[in-house]
Amino acid sequence: MNQPSSRFKAAAACPLFLFFDCTSARLPYNSGKEGTPVETKAIDLFKAYSDGQLPQEGGYIVTSFFQQNSAYAKYEIVAYNGVKSLYLSEDGLTFQTDGNKLFVLSEPVNYDRKYMEPFTRDGQHQVPHRFSEVDQITAKNMTRIMISKQPVIAYSSFTICRPTTLNFSLLFYNLPDVFASIASYFEKTLYAEANVPKEDAVEAGRRIIAGLKRFTIWQELAEKAAAVAAKPAAKPKPKPKAKKVAAKKPAAGKKAPAKKAAAKKAPAKKPAAKKAAAKKPAAKKPAAKKRR
Q1: Read out DSSP for 248-267?
Q2: What is the mean pLDDT of residues 50-62?
Q3: Hey, what's the torsion of the CAs at 121, 122, 123, 125, to 10 degrees?
Q4: pLDDT tens digits for 164-185?
Q5: What is the 3-state secondary structure (H, E, C) of 140-182?
Q6: pLDDT above 70 covers what percent of the chain?
Q7: What residues does 87 pair with on adjacent strands?
Q8: What is the distance, to the nearest Å, from the Cα of residue 221 to the centroid of all Cα atoms in its chain?
Q9: What's residue 11's pLDDT?
Q10: CA dist 20 to 25, 40, 41, 102, 176, Å?
Q11: DSSP at 82
């Protein structure tokens, strides 16, 4: 029976041993002049959480599940973005955000339940797929590798289990060469720990990356960014003009318009009515007759 290598003892103390080894957990991203700062490509997830190095803007989490007495191995890859909150519980580390998942299963030739649909197997051997939902590779040594054809969407939250001696989670930072780093991880671990021939491990890594490129979480992010960039900037509303107190001065050479009366014009006074009766001249008194 195939058994995992003794390197698991080292992996318990330093999970990155299987990929980088403990002395090279930080790999140079900017390989240039001497003194150029290096950029971390991958780090143990729970160490990143305790050290405050979890990027809120997103990344890839690869959780590996190995077994003590078998070459059977399964992997869960989760891409996340825009974390609202994080909290640690007895079960593991919970991310309050949407995620895209891809599952990988490596089944050795002597596995006695290979006829069972992957979603019907016990917890250690289970992935949430039917045979029709996975891309299959049959290696030269008859090891069967199964990879999700389409991403599984985790809505609102997902939880990464706490690490054990044989199970651990790595966080891959979303750098320009992240796919190359993830492909290298699968090539090495499938070859060293799942007994997959090197050529078949390389092919599996290539197909895994093709599956990651189908994740919708980054497409949605790009679409939102493009929509914001294409949206025209809102024009500022014109400020209301202040009322001018002073009257406008007339232009030169023009007569100033007559000022409007503020109050209503009072009705013109009617001319006094002429006295109807004119004074009659006093009547002349008859002259007195002279006496003879």
Answers
A1: PPPPTTSPPPPPPPSSPPPP
A2: 89
A3: -60
A4: 888 999 999 999 999 999 999 9
A5: CCCCEEEEECCCEEECCCEEEECCCCCEEEEEEECCCCHHHHH
A6: 61
A7: 94
A8: 6
A9: 46
A10: 6, 12, 10, 23, 19
A11: -
Q: Determine the Cα–Cα distance for residues 127 and 104; give it in Å rounded to an integer.
A: 8
Q: Provide the phi-psi class of 45: left if phi over 0, else alpha when psi is between -120 and 50, else beta.
A: alpha
Let me know: does 119 contact 129? Beta carbons within 8 Å: yes
Note whether 195 and 141 are within 8 A (CB): yes
CA 234 to chain centre: 24
Q: Which helix (H) or strand (E) holds 61?
A: strand 59-67
Taking residues 122-137, report their average pLDDT.
94
Q: What is the pLDDT of residue 170?
A: 95
DSSP SS3 for 11:
helix
Q: What is the largest CA-CA distance in the chain?
A: 191
Locate 203 and state its tokens.
């092919």
Assess contact for 157 and 94: CB atoms under 8 A.
Answer: yes
> Cβ contacts of residue 36 below 8 Å, gap of 6+?
28, 30
- Dist. CA 157–CA 99, nearest whole Å: 7
Q: Which residue has the higher pLDDT, 177 or 264?
A: 177
How long is the chain? 292
145 pLDDT more than 80 = yes
Distance CA 66, CA 249 (A): 92
**What is d(CA 101, CA 178) in angstroms, rounded to the nearest whole number?**
16
Residue among 164, 149, 67, 147 at smallest CA distance from 111: 67
Average pLDDT, the chain: 76
Report the candidate in 19, 116, 123 with the shortest Cα–Cα distance to residue 65.
Answer: 123
